[in-house]
Design brief:
With about 350 residues, the chain is α/β, with parallel strands linked by helices. It has two domains: about 180 residues, Rossmann fold; about 170 residues, Rossmann fold. It contains 13 helices and 13 strands. It has a seven-stranded parallel beta sheet, with helices on both faces. It has a six-stranded parallel beta sheet with strand order 10-9-8-11-12-13, sandwiched between helices. Helix 1 packs across helix 13. The radius of gyration is 21 Å and the shape is globular. This is Glycosyltransferase family 4 protein. One of its GO terms (molecular function) is glycosyltransferase activity. Its EC number is 2.4.-.-. Keywords: Glycosyltransferase, Transferase. It is an enzyme of class 2 (transferase).
Length: about 350
């Protein structure tokens, strides 16, 4: 490895001024930590424009081309000796192109969830082939949960075990105001509005509740996405407007979460949910499914409740039991996040992945 200390971070991630989330805070903290170690860092983002939160970062962002294409078009020769990728598909020809540039040390962080019942056979075969062709161009694979790391090996080959690591997501717990009193019947959804997030199941589950229980329930949905119009239509069809309030995007979740009794996340696929970490940091327990890395953070009955993905009846029964007062989470659920899933630990572990140069 040469004496240069220049890092390129390539992220298929959209920067939004109305959404300053856990990953945005990680990017800024990681940039600071790299600079303290003497590294120069350039950031490449997809489909976005720069805003004030990233003022101190050297950012290349465009609404027209992907982060990968920006990197390939703006860089030549041997400028970077370390390249880190986030939210990119693994084991593609892009990684071969990276190595051809300057033989950088390549770290690929996998944030991508897998389908509930796995990939179809054709996709599994294709992934194995891609692993054989392109895994050699990635020096370190990183899963954001044990679930993710296990699937890297399953998708691309067990021979990658020695260069596959786990670095859990973490958040800046200091920005979250903690719930101190019980907010009876107030629930929050904070999610991209797409089918895999299962919010349509939540609406169906609420529709199954007795009229008496419906009157006790208020659900605020924060987020936007391609399913938003259809979700609103279902709410109208079932006449559930008193129960559901679509609030759009917000950058104020750290202050808002404290106002709710539970976070609802009826998802079908997840890697390691930052929304869950954020909710727990605000001392708000979580109702979710045992998919992806969710069981690695949620202990049923201790800091939340788990129900089978897609099981609308089970979710409805769980909601009814909670509204009856028969189920409750009374302890402080924020301590686990403060101790084990904090932003500093996440940043330190990512810094430790960098090779000695």
């Amino acid at each position: 490895m040469s004496n240069r200390k220049q890092i390129a971070v390539i992220c298929n991630y959209e920067l939004k001024p109305d959404r300053i989330g856990g990953m945005d805070r990680f990017f800024v903290a990681y940039d600071d930590a790299c600079k303290e170690k003497g590294f120069q860092v350039d950031w490449f983002f997809s489909n976005c424009t720069l805003h004030n939160f990233f003022t101190n970062l050297t950012v290349y962002a465009s609404e027209e081309i992907s982060a990968e294409d920006q990197f390939l078009s703006k860089t030549t020769g041997s400028k970077y000796n370390i390249v880190v990728t986030h939210f990119l598909a693994l084991c593609t020809s892009f990684y071969k192109k990276l190595k051809e540039r300057s033989q950088p040390y390549v770290i690929a962080v996998d944030h991508n969830p897998r389908p509930l019942h796995g990939f179809p056979l054709k996709k599994r075969v294709k992934n194995k082939l891609k692993g054989r062709l392109y895994s050699q161009y990635i020096d370190c694979f990183v899963g954001v949960s044990q679930y993710t790391a296990d699937y890297i090996l399953q998708d691309y080959g067990g021979y990658l075990r020695k260069k596959t690591k786990v670095v859990y997501n973490g958040i800046d717990t200091s920005v979250y105001l903690k719930r101190t009193t019980k907010k009876w019947g107030k629930f929050i959804v904070a999610s991209h509005l797409r089918e895999s997030k299962g919010i349509q199941d939540l609406i169906e589950a609420v529709n199954l509740l007795s009229e008496e229980k419906k009157k006790l329930l208020k659900i605020d949905i924060f987020g936007v996405g391609p399913l938003e119009t259809r979700l609103k239509e279902i709410v109208r069809e079932y006449k559930l407007e008193p129960q559901f309030n679509f609030k759009g995007s917000t950058s104020n979740l750290p202050e808002l979460l404290q106002n709710y009794s539970f976070l609802l996340q009826p998802t079908y696929m997840e890697c390691f949910s930052l929304s869950i970490l954020e909710s727990l940091a605000a001392n708000v327990p979580v109702i979710t499914t045992p998919v992806g890395g969710n069981p690695e953070i949620i202990t049923n009955g201790k800091n939340g409740f788990l129900f089978p993905a897609g099981n609308i009846a089970a979710l409805s029964e769980l909601l009814e039991t909670i509204l009856d007062g028969e189920l409750n989470i009374s302890g402080d659920v924020s301590r686990l996040i403060e101790d084990q899933y904090n932003l500093k630990k996440m940043v330190d572990e990512h810094i430790n992945l960098l090779p000695c140069i």
